[in-house]
Amino acid sequence: MNNYEIEVFISKDEIAEKVKKLGKIITDEYKNTKELVVIGLLRGSVIFLSDLVRELDLPVSIDFMTVSSYGNEMESTREVKIIKDLDENIMGKDVLIVEDILDSGLTLKKVMGILESRSPNSLKLSVLLNKTGRREADISPDYIGFEFEDGFVVGYGIDYAQKHRNLPYIGIVKEVK
């Protein structure tokens, strides 16, 4: 897509309010844990993860995985590649995966299967955006920021060909003819 514009879909203030609410819910649910391991999927989750962990009133450690299924395209290649694995052992620990967007679910289904095989005490998923219209895998997030049916979005960590991650809002990409 060469010519496109970005329309504001979810404002900076709406995101901040939702992240604060999610932080309170997660804090309440994990209040008896010794340590919550928060795993971000790079690169898209970084901004959401950073804001979310600041809202958690819990002992937290952070780790990252790098997985890819998009490359520089707007459609998933359907091939999930694990580029960087965790540094931390999660066996017996409470684990929260933080992801920017749940789309087809294929990538997260694979990642969750890998992490479940490592015997965490618990494994839950928090997504900023739950894109329901193109779900292919049987996966449901435990914590959801916003839900929408379909559309290509950017901003607040989410990119198009590595651009627009730094937008403070979520925008919908519209092709200009």
From TrEMBL:
<dbReference type="GO" id="GO:0005829">
    <property type="term" value="C:cytosol"/>
</dbReference>
<dbReference type="InterPro" id="IPR050408">
    <property type="entry name" value="HGPRT"/>
</dbReference>
<keyword id="KW-0547">Nucleotide-binding</keyword>
<dbReference type="GO" id="GO:0032264">
    <property type="term" value="P:IMP salvage"/>
</dbReference>
<keyword id="KW-0660">Purine salvage</keyword>
<dbReference type="InterPro" id="IPR000836">
    <property type="entry name" value="PRTase_dom"/>
</dbReference>
<keyword id="KW-0479">Metal-binding</keyword>
<dbReference type="GO" id="GO:0006166">
    <property type="term" value="P:purine ribonucleoside salvage"/>
</dbReference>
<protein>
    <recommendedName>
        <fullName>Hypoxanthine phosphoribosyltransferase</fullName>
        <ecNumber>2.4.2.8</ecNumber>
    </recommendedName>
</protein>
<dbReference type="GO" id="GO:0046100">
    <property type="term" value="P:hypoxanthine metabolic process"/>
</dbReference>
<comment type="pathway">
    <text>Purine metabolism; IMP biosynthesis via salvage pathway; IMP from hypoxanthine: step 1/1.</text>
</comment>
<dbReference type="InterPro" id="IPR005904">
    <property type="entry name" value="Hxn_phspho_trans"/>
</dbReference>
<dbReference type="GO" id="GO:0006178">
    <property type="term" value="P:guanine salvage"/>
</dbReference>
<dbReference type="InterPro" id="IPR029057">
    <property type="entry name" value="PRTase-like"/>
</dbReference>
<keyword id="KW-0808">Transferase</keyword>
<dbReference type="GO" id="GO:0032263">
    <property type="term" value="P:GMP salvage"/>
</dbReference>
<comment type="similarity">
    <text>Belongs to the purine/pyrimidine phosphoribosyltransferase family.</text>
</comment>
<feature type="domain" description="Phosphoribosyltransferase">
    <location>
        <begin position="14"/>
        <end position="160"/>
    </location>
</feature>
<keyword id="KW-0460">Magnesium</keyword>
<dbReference type="Pfam" id="PF00156">
    <property type="entry name" value="Pribosyltran"/>
</dbReference>
<dbReference type="GO" id="GO:0000166">
    <property type="term" value="F:nucleotide binding"/>
</dbReference>
<keyword id="KW-0963">Cytoplasm</keyword>
<dbReference type="GO" id="GO:0004422">
    <property type="term" value="F:hypoxanthine phosphoribosyltransferase activity"/>
</dbReference>
<keyword id="KW-0328">Glycosyltransferase</keyword>
<dbReference type="GO" id="GO:0052657">
    <property type="term" value="F:guanine phosphoribosyltransferase activity"/>
</dbReference>
<dbReference type="GO" id="GO:0000287">
    <property type="term" value="F:magnesium ion binding"/>
</dbReference>
